[in-house]
Design brief:
Blueprint (H helix, E strand, L loop, with lengths): L2 H16 L2 H8 L5 H22 L10 H23 L4 H8 L2 H12 L6 H20 L6 H28 L1 H23 L9 H29 L1 H4 L6 H13 L5 H19 L6 H12 L1
Helix pairs in contact: 1-10, 2-10, 3-4, 3-9, 3-10, 4-8, 4-9, 5-7, 6-8, 7-13, 8-9, 8-10, 9-10
Length: 303
Amino acid sequence: MSGAYRGWASGFAGMLIFSGSMPATRIAVSGFDPVFLTAMRGSIAGVLGLLLLVVLRERRPARGDLLPLAATAAGVVIGFPLLSALALERVDAARSLVFLGLLPLITAIFGFLRAGERPHPVFWIFSGLGAALVAGFALGRGGSSDLIADGMMMAGLILCGMAYAEGARLSRHLGGWQVISWALVLALPAMLALSLFTAPATLEGIALPVWLSVGYVSVFSMLIGFIFWYRGLAQGGIAAVSQLQLLMPFFGLMLAALLLHEHISGAMLATAAGIVLCVAGAKHFSRPGSRSAAAFTRLRRRA
């Protein structure tokens, strides 16, 4: 298996793990304040990341890596978890699908700006179409609207896309699990202090589903998922592999159908099929020198 296909396989595994993050966060904020939830999940994941680094005796990052690591921590450890948790206090999970559909496009833009990736122009057509399909499907399902919540979600996605690109750049020489572990460790002092400052007076009465959701977003969403995701972005390309995120809402809905017996409509299946085609198209045109991109260029010149 080539490096690019290994990257897509790793990115797909990360996407599957992330697909449960928004529903789990929605459940978790029903029992905890969003600020405390963000600090707690960052603290738990940070301690685990520190243990990994110590046990495996990982070398310290170079001084030039510290600023990109700080940017990564600002986006995926603090910014997006906090802003999305605050937004999900005000709107339902269906509304968040509108914004998740924009994340692949935002990530690809940061890959262009920060990692020097130059996809073929047709790539942007497929990426934009995929984002439009996800947003249209989410809007068609309804859901509450709130300008403040929408603004927080959009700001969180921008920070998240930036952190994805920065982390992927670092993963090329540091490694995927090392990048997220060091980012978590950098944020750990602030997360621990914030946890103590915002801790509730008592933890009695917190339902089991809330604790399970906290465990999921702390261990899987904040650590394990990023090990696969950053490796995938580094090996398969930031712009290309990021398009897999378009599938996240649909895997979440399928999970809800299996576990909660929710109905899967024909519109969902049709939209999911369109998303798959957009992801496939974006993959083919993700590199300027690819055969598909060269063939399209020849056809355009003949026309």
